Amino acid sequence: MSFELSLGIRNQTQVVEFVLLGFSGILYGQSYLALAFLAIYLVTVLGNLMIFTMIQLKSSLHTPMYYFLSHLSCLDICLSSVTVPKIMVNLLLQQQTISYNQCMAQMFFLMTFTGAEAALLAVMAYDRYAAICKPLHYSRLVNTKVCTVLAFATWFWGFLNSALHTALSTRLDFCGINQIHHIFCDLPPLMKMACSDTHINEVADHMAGVFVSGGPFVFIIFSYVFILFSILKIQSTTGKRKAFSTCASHLTVVFIYYGNGILNYQGPSGGYSVATGTLVSIMFCVITPMLNPLIYSLRNKEVKGALKKAAESWRKSKHHHSIS
Question: For 158-185, what is the mean pLDDT?
């Protein structure tokens, strides 16, 4: 009898589907909102794919800095693809649901790519440090083997973090509560919903905040402190300007990524309203991946030069075909 009772209680706590309430306040125009997300997604994918392809094809861009930038483009495409397509489908169907398995998978990949991007930004800071502070040893400090190892380490860094959190999350019970005050599945809203003990999850989350996100950020800060001192020692104004220009794009991406990340994961203790939380999440996981290729293409002279050459080649090829 006690076994049957416990089994019945356990069956009641099994949640097979979650309801995402992030867009619950929007009663009309969801199809237009879906089109807006589609436009953002296309710009994100095409922009990052253009950067990635250009780096692979242009031999002048076969340097460590652009090698890491190509990985950043891949991460941005993956990060956007984890959330935006599901958001568009739900908006078009006007049914904001996601299955339990899809939710866990979405959270796993979301945390993989965000964690990997945090580590990759730190690696890119190391590359700038080596180039500006140790120019005579740059080829040894950032050679092909080192670049490959560092790139692999960033992806593994994100995977290890997300695997731990996802494994812990699958042990949570939800007691029939299946409403997530968010636009996609993420760790903080899932922990708030759980009716079982989340102490281990919270400890793991705090540790990840310190090591997975905070560690790379501190490394970036210290790298740029040394970079700043080295730039100030440069005598010529042209040299200083060139050194600053090589760091400007990366610094802009770092500020946008960590600024939105802090708002998304380290917001007020009382939490945001659903509408504000939705906006913050969109900025972090939807808008930021779209901005990165724009930042690098607009602020980087070598990227702009490669884009102009590619555009000229395309126009000449089109003109040649029209004549023939």
Answer: 87
Task: Write the secondary structure of 31-79 as one string of H (helix), E (strand) and C (coil).
Answer: HHHHHHHHHHHHHHHHHHHHHHHHHHHCHHHCCHHHHHHHHHHHHHHHH
Contact between residue 157 and residue 212 where contact means Cβ atoms under 8 Å apart: yes
Spatial contact of 114 and 257, defined as CB atoms under 8 Å apart: no
Radius of gyration of the chain (CA): 23
- What's the pTM value of the predicted model, to 2 decimals? 0.86
Residue 11 clears pLDDT 50, i.e. is over it: no
d(CA 310, CA 94): 42
Q: Which residue has the higher pLDDT, 124 or 323?
A: 124
7 burial level (CB within 10 Å; 0-12, 13-18, 19+): exposed
Residue 75: pLDDT band (50, 70, 90) is very high
Q: Output the CA torsion 248→118→79→111 (10° steps).
A: -160
On whether the CB atoms of residues 127 and 154 are closer than 8 A, the answer is no
Residues 39, 40, 46, 50: is their CA dihedral positive or negative?
A: positive
Per the listing, tokens 């380290």 go with 266
In tens, the pLDDT along 83-108 reads 999 999 888 888 888 899 999 999 99
- Residue 96 and residue 245: Cα distance in Å, rounded? 44
Fold entry, domain 17-323: Rhopdopsin 7-helix transmembrane proteins (1.20.1070)
Weakest mean pLDDT among 149-158, 210-219, 314-323: 314-323
